[in-house]
Amino acid sequence: MGPLSSVRREVASLRSNGRGPVLLAVAGGWGTLLGARMIYPVLLPYLRAEFGLSLTVAGFLVTVLWLGSAVGQLPGGILADRYSERLVMTAGAAVVALALLVVIAARTAIVLFLATGLVGLGQSMYPIARITILSDIYPDRIGSALGVTMATGDLGQTVLPPVAGALAAAIAWRAGLGFLVPVLAVVAVVLWVTLPARPSTDSAVDDLSVDSARYVLGELRRSNMAFIAFILFLYIMIWQSFTGLYPTYLVDEKGLTSTQAGILFSGFFAVGVVVKPVAGAAYDRIGVRLSLIVVLVGPIAGLGLLPVVEGFWPLAGVTALVSTMLGSGAITQSFLSDAIPADIRGTGLGVVRTAAATFGALGPVLFGSIADRGYFDEGYLLLAAIMALVVLLTRRLPAE
User: What is the pTM of this model?
Assistant: First the structure.
């Protein structure tokens, strides 16, 4: 069977039994939310100029965004276990829309930071519910379904940041965020209309008691989640550090224009549109270890080459090399969904992802402080070394 036939078979399977509209709605919402989040690095030079932010403080703003996106995943997972995912995901999109209105109206750095944290909190309600609903709908194709969803996320991150950058350059940075508010309102309506209004599930977490916490942590220990959570933490720290200040690095250190930097930044996510569905399908077929190693080897070389490469097109090649790491999300999240028991899937995913993403969110502010001290290039070499450690640790994961 040729590659084209395999693709057609996967598409037909994902669309079968009326599941296509649900996948389309979930993926579209995810793409819009991630695109909104990735507008921040593109607008960071404008925010630095208006609010007088240093690189360290600008990195901290990105950290606040990622921290908000992390800490809300555990409550979001608990709610996904107990209530309809439709309610949780719709509420998440609505909260982000309202928070962006506050960001647009901000006149002080304090309001900017608080509203940015609220953007992250709204976004954090979506990821776990997205995984649990797809796990139920696609029990035999979770890797492929998550791969498509996450590829749509990269499509949003490819398309929306350049639009925001163009609006910021032509009008003002507030216009670069403002156009998303009505888009998110439409997303909320589509999610509410399309997703099934399922009743609350039979969750093992009926309350926030010590017994419930002990049960969840015991199940996670039996599933060896601490090790995969540590790998996930390292990966998130690398990814957030790289993306948080990459456009600024290209402008300040490589001499590119803001437009060129925006193109390369979008190109980074454009590669993910292709890589993530392939990575998710690879997980379904060859397991977590080999598929994860394949997508993470290239970024080691790319991050190591970044300080010595100059010029738009060479930097485009290095950016594409680094971007293969985007495929790891479809692999690790599919593995987590399969490994965590169904009765605590949402809560368990929330614990693992919140722990990993909370600590990983420290990456941008630490990376920003390194850059402020004149070690921007060395920071990327450090990321390459950490990525090499991730690959070595991945060899300890099960083959299947």
Answer: 0.72
